[in-house]
Write a structure and sequence with these properties.
The protein is mainly α. Helices cover about 60% and strands about 0% of the residues.
C-alpha cells in the first residue's frame, strides 16, 4: 500500500508542531519552578543501546524493567560503570519519563552493590532507605560517614583534653565550691 506523500508530510508537520509545543511547555515549567538544567553525561548510553539491540528491546523510550534487566545482566561491568550507564539513560530520556527513577532500577542497583542505611536510621524505616534513588542513598551514606568521623574526632580531642587536665594536677571538677553567704 503506497503512502500519500502529502498526507505523510502533513503528519510529520503535525508531529513537529506537537514536539515544539511540548518543548515550550517543558521550558515554561522549568522556568516557573526554577528547576536547574541537568548536566548529565550521555557518554555511556551506547552500552545500554547496544545491549538493547542485541536483545531486540527498545532503548528509547526505555521501560524501567528493560533497564533493570540490563543492570542485572551486566554485573561484570562493575557498579561504577553501571552508574554511568544509568546516568546516560537518564540524560537521553530528558523530556520523557525517566526509567532510571523506577523502584525496579533502584532495586537492581541495590542487588548489585547494596548501600546499607545509616546506623542512625530506625530499623523499622530501613526499607525506606533502599527505596531512595541511588544518588540520594550514596549522598546520605557519605554524609553520615563524614558526620560520624567528625563526632569521633571531637570525642578523641575531648578525651585528650581531659587527660591533659588530669596530668596537670587538676583532677577536681570544674565547678567551684559553694561559699557560705554572710
Amino acid at each position: 500500500m503506497a503512502t500519500n506523500p502529502v498526507m505523510a508530510a502533513l503528519a510529520n508537520a503535525k508531529q513537529a508542531e506537537l514536539e515544539a509545543r511540548e518543548r515550550a511547555a517543558t521550558g515554561i515549567v522549568q522556568a516557573r519552578l526554577q528547576i536547574p538544567p541537568r548536566n548529565l553525561s550521555r557518554a555511556e548510553f551506547s552500552v545500554f543501546a547496544e545491549w538493547c539491540d542485541e536483545k531486540e528491546l527498545r532503548a528509547v523510550p526505555a521501560k524501567p524493567s528493560t533497564l533493570a534487566f540490563f543492570l542485572l545482566d551486566s554485573v561484570a561491568l562493575g557498579i561504577s560503570r553501571l552508574e554511568k550507564v544509568v546516568e546516560g539513560v537518564s540524560a537521553v530520556h530528558e523530556g520523557l519519563a525517566d526509567p532510571t527513577l523506577s523502584p525496579c532500577v533502584t532495586a537492581a542497583l541495590a542487588t548489585i552493590a547494596p548501600i546499607p542505611p545509616p546506623r542512625s536510621w530506625p530499623k523499622e524505616q530501613a526499607h525506606l532507605f533502599s527505596q531512595l534513588p541511588r544518588s540520594l542513598q550514596t549522598w546520605v551514606a557519605e554524609h553520615q560517614e563524614r558526620r560520624e568521623k567528625e563526632v569521633r574526632r571531637i570525642q578523641t580531642e575531648l578525651q585528650k583534653l581531659k587527660l591533659k587536665d588530669k596530668t596537670h594536677g587538676n583532677s577536681s571538677p570544674t565547678t567551684e565550691p559553694a561559699h557560705a553567704s554572710a
